[in-house]
Automatic annotation (TrEMBL), chain A:
This is Lipopolysaccharide export system ATP-binding protein LptB. Signal peptide: none annotated. SMART domains: AAA (SM00382). Gene3D superfamilies: P-loop containing nucleotide triphosphate hydrolases (3.40.50.300). It comes from Actibacterium lipolyticum. CDD domains: ABC_Mj1267_LivG_branched. GO terms for cellular component: plasma membrane.
Automatic annotation (TrEMBL), chain B:
It comes from the Bacteria. InterPro entries: ABC_transp_permease (IPR001851), ABC_transptr_urea_perm_UrtC (IPR017778), LivM-like (IPR043428). One of its GO terms (molecular function) is branched-chain amino acid transmembrane transporter activity. Its main location: membrane. This is Leucine/isoleucine/valine transporter permease subunit.
Length: 246, 410
């Protein structure tokens, strides 16, 4: 399996605190991966580095077949290259309709003049409707995103991610604040997405990770502690000590 | 094919209709072309008000929609005024110099005319040389181009530097205010080449139209201002009506999220900042010939702060709100400060509105911000029944805006 994202030897320090310490991480083209780890293990910082929000002090982040370094690119360039990110809190544009939220995320030219002259085609509308179907928000399209329930906002954000057609999806705690039925729907969405692209899920909830049924990477103090199937890593004594056994 | 532009923006048609009726009404009641009910100076005030509405639209675009609280748009407005003022003053003075030397036995050489103009215009600041920045002042076409180019370039360069460094929020406001203050202080200097604190005057006299009475010229400017306002409104409605509007409102609400969607946020901000600077400059170029005089005090930061107050009172984030705010507050302000409002004797103290108007304005600004953040424009939501649902009870979810208890029970 070819590698889509290769992170090697990155370190980052905030005011003397080493948030990421010589961390390496690879993911293939169509792979589902869960990242677990205690608070402060560097999970969110890792995502910040991949998406260009934080610059590492050292190390490499190599992307795609052409081995491009993501470190020299801005957030928006990285997003256009095909990295989509879902934040811990659902961040949708609350003042705008669900339809407009999805339309904005739809993979299109992103320049100001392209967007200014953009005319909505029937094809784009169908795409938005198909996406809304997938995330179960067809009935909510004309509503303002701010009126949605928490779980629905999470799905809308996942829908916006899918609309971007990213090759790599970074998802931060998708199941937070969801009911069991909503969790199951979310699991299915993520598993479905991982058939055609790489998906990285950061999650605290072990039950949710078990349901994802994928390879798991355990972070601890800014580096990888263990990697493998969930049963494999949960049997690891070090993992039990720092994370599970508390 | 989607619905037409006007079907998607019904307020545009209503606005343009009201504007047309207003302009026609003023024309019919005017001194110049109508039944002489509205004086020429009142027509000029109304024409100027339309220009202020236009810059309010620009402010609403950049602040209400894109979230950039610029305290510098009156600098662009003033620059536009200066650019057109240079041509007006130069050509007018040239006509005076030429007519003054008409009786001389020898016709004046071009150099003599030029010297005469220099002495006339710059004598007041102790100079006679025409500064290099007046190079194009004898060409109306060139100065009209400069109305757009100079403020546009200034906005482009300033915006590029500011947005590229990711200066946002209140820091950006301070930066724009600093730019405005610097420009105004520079223009106050006598050797700035724009007559220092005297500014440019006599702008109401159009060269080549000496025989046209002011009562008619005021009407023409009213029409021009109304046309510019209508076009500006259409342009703004078109910009915010589509996906572009979606993106800039997204930038206003959550800049980082828009960035992670792959949009180059700085490019969008720069676009909006520059376009609104140009709109402001055009508004200024129409305003100052009606005002007759422009001086650096017009550019001072306080003017741009007033602009923000108008837009906030009118209702930001909606174009007609900005127009209502600018028209309402500036006309009321003219009424209060013009000495027409009756004083209120309290026995021990007499409230003179000329002094107390600013206090009243400040209080209304605070009141609007606290109690009616949608401004006057919010009243239209009541009419059209677009009220936000009443949401009582505690949040069910962990975030603001989630379903609340009572809604969930329904």
């Amino acid at each position: 399996m070819s590698t889509l994202l290769e992170v090697s030897g990155i370190s980052v320090t905030f005011d003397g605190f080493r948030a990421i310490n010589n961390l390496s991480f690879n993911i293939g083209n169509a792979e589902l991966r869960a990242i677990i780890g205690p608070n402060g293990a560097g999970k969110t910082t890792f995502m910040d580095i991949v998406t260009g929000k934080t610059r590492p002090d050292e190390g490499r982040v190599i992307w795609g077949e052409k081995n491009i370094s993501l470190l020299k690119m801005s957030e928006s360039q990285i997003a256009r290259a095909g990295v989509g990110r879902k934040f811990q809190r659902p961040t949708v544009f609350e003042d705008q309709s669900v339809f407009d939220n999805l339309l904005m995320a739809l993979k299109k030219e992103r320049g100001p003049f392209d967007v200014l002259l953009y005319r909505r085609s029937a094809q784009d509308r169908d795409k938005v409707h198909a996406l809304a179907d997938e995330i179960g928000l067809s009935a909510e399209l004309p509503r303002k995103a701010g009126e949605l329930a928490h779980g629905q906002k999470q799905w809308l954000e996942i829908g916006m991610l899918l609309a971007q057609e990213p090759r790599l999806l970074l998802v931060d705690e998708p199941a937070a604040g969801m009911s069991p039925a909503e969790r199951e729907h979310t699991t299915n969405l993520l598993k479905e997405a991982a058939k055609t692209r790489a998906v990285v899920v950061v999650e605290h909830d072990m039950e949710f990770v078990r349901r994802l049924d994928c390879k798991v990477t355990v972070f601890h103090e800014g580096s990888v502690l263990a990697e493998g199937s969930l049963d494999h890593v949960t049997a690891n004594q070090e993992v039990i000590d720092v994370y599970l056994g508390r | 094919m989607e619905r037409s532009f006007f079907a998607r923006n019904p307020s545009t048609l209503i606005f343009i209709t009201i504007l047309a009726v207003f302009t026609l009404g003023v024309t019919l009641l005017s001194e110049g072309l109508g039944v002489d009910v509205i004086s020429t100076s009142m027509v000029k005030t109304l024409g100027k008000t339309l220009c202020l509405c236009l810059i309010a639209i620009a402010m609403d675009l950049v602040w209400g929609y894109c979230g950039i609280l610029s305290l510098g748009h009156f600098a662009f407005f003033g620059l536009g005024g200066y650019m057109i003022g240079m041509w007006l003053m130069y050509e007018r003075t040239k006509a005076i110099v030429v007519s003054a030397t008409a009786g001389a036995p020898l016709p004046p050489t071009p150099q003599e005319i030029r010297d005469g103009i220099g002495t006339q215009i710059f004598g007041v600041v102790g100079g006679a040389e025409i500064p290099p920045i007046w190079y194009f002042a004898d060409s109306l076409f060139a100065q009209l181009a400069l109305v757009v180019l100079i403020p546009g370039l200034l906005a482009l360069v300033f915006g590029w530097l500011a947005f590229r460094s990711r200066v946002t929020g209140v820091y950006l406001s301070i930066l724009t205010q600093a730019m405005t203050l610097a420009l105004s202080l520079y223009l106050f200097q006598n050797d700035s080449g724009l007559r220092g604190n005297n500014g440019l005057s006599g702008l109401q006299n159009l060269p080549g139209a000496e025989n046209v009475p002011q009562s008619l010229i005021s009407i023409y400017f009213l029409w021009a201002s109304a046309a510019a306002l209508a076009l500006g409104y259409l342009l703004a409605a078109w910009i915010v009506g589509g996906k572009f509007g979606s993106v800039i409102r997204g930038i206003r609400d959550d800049e980082a999220r828009v960035r992670f969607l792959g949009y180059h946020v700085e490019g969008y901000k720069l676009f909006v900042f520059t376009v609104t600077a140009i709109i402001a400059a055009i508004a200024g170029a129409l305003y100052y010939p009606q005002a007759g005089i422009i001086n650096p005090a017009e550019i001072a930061p306080i003017a741009s702060i007033y602009l923000a107050v108008w837009v906030a009172i009118g209702g930001r984030g909606r174009l007609y709100g900005a127009v209502i705010g600018a028209a309402f507050v500036s006309l009321v302000s003219t009424w209060f400060t013009g000495g027409q409002a009756p004083d209120i004797p309290l026995g021990f103290y007499t409230v003179k509105w000329v002094d107390w108007w600013l206090v009243l304005l400040g209080l209304s600004f605070v009141a609007v911000t606290l109690f009616a953040p949608k401004g006057i424009g919010g009243l239209f939501d009541m009419l059209s029944g677009r009220l936000a649902p009443q949401r009582h009870g505690a949040d069910l979810g962990p975030d603001q805006g989630s379903f609340r208890e009572k809604e969930a029970e329904q």
